[in-house]
């Protein structure tokens, strides 16, 4: 639809909009590198959760095929539904007017005469939210099960159904979600609660990325000969790992200097310290310790 508006002028009296909005209103890349880095600190949180693909490896019938396909589809979906959608929006509407007159997606649909635009967008948003919730429930249930089997949570959390579903972990995840729903009704300013909860998840959400990168470095070096013929090749290893970690460190530094994300950094640090304190006080670090590489 957006490309039809750009190239053929659908909803614009047949006059193609073209690419003028990309170079006008301050020129292309109007915010410069400062604007780019500021936006990057906010956008990076949108990609958290992509690592959940790895959790499904244990249940995939043919992981060599399904995981490769899943990773490839993630890349294309990001390019089409995220980068592509943003490209269409900033091409149709001047970037300095986006958001001032409502949702640009709703306005795009309305431009070509779709009167139910708001309802369509709400449906898409709710569907995406349910999809994200479904992924979160799946991953939380599996991770809680793994922690319980590793004696880092009570054994009852490892209970599974006859179909192998970690029902105890899923139930515990649902209870925690219900706490958030209750706070939404109890606290006078629920938007403030959302800000703090979201802020507390941004930095902890980046921790698994560091852990994955460091774990892969140590694992591949310790088992270099054993995985020489492994079907999954790591491109540019180990430099890709170092570059990614450097990128994440730059994002964290940028979050500190950006007023819009500084609170996320501080709240995230407090949350991580609280979790670490609980981990030490209850002695969870004394159970299920994995063997060090090389032992």
Uncertain stretches of 5 or more adjacent residues:
none
Distance between the termini: 59 Å
Secondary-structure-based class equals mainly alpha
H and E string: HHHHHHHHHH
The major β-sheet equals: none
Radius of gyration: 23 Å
Report the oligomer.
single chain
- Chain-averaged pLDDT: 79
The total count of strands amounts to 0
- Please work out how many helical segments DSSP would assign: 10
Helix fraction? 55-70%
Overall geometry comes to globular
| β-strand amount | under 5%
Membrane topology: Multi-pass membrane protein
Main location: membrane
Organism: Salmonella typhimurium
Subcellular location: Membrane
Q: Briefly, what is this?
A:
This protein is mainly α and 295 residues long. The protein has helices at residues 2-8, 20-23, 32-43, 63-92, 104-111, 117-149, 167-186, 190-222, 239-257, 259-281.
Describe the structure in your own words.
- The protein has helices at 2-8, 20-23, 32-43, 63-92, 104-111, 117-149, 167-186, 190-222, 239-257, 259-281.
- With 295 residues, the protein is mainly α.
- The protein contains ten helices and no strands.
- Among the domains are: 114-186; 190-282, no CATH class.
- One of its GO terms (cellular component) is membrane.
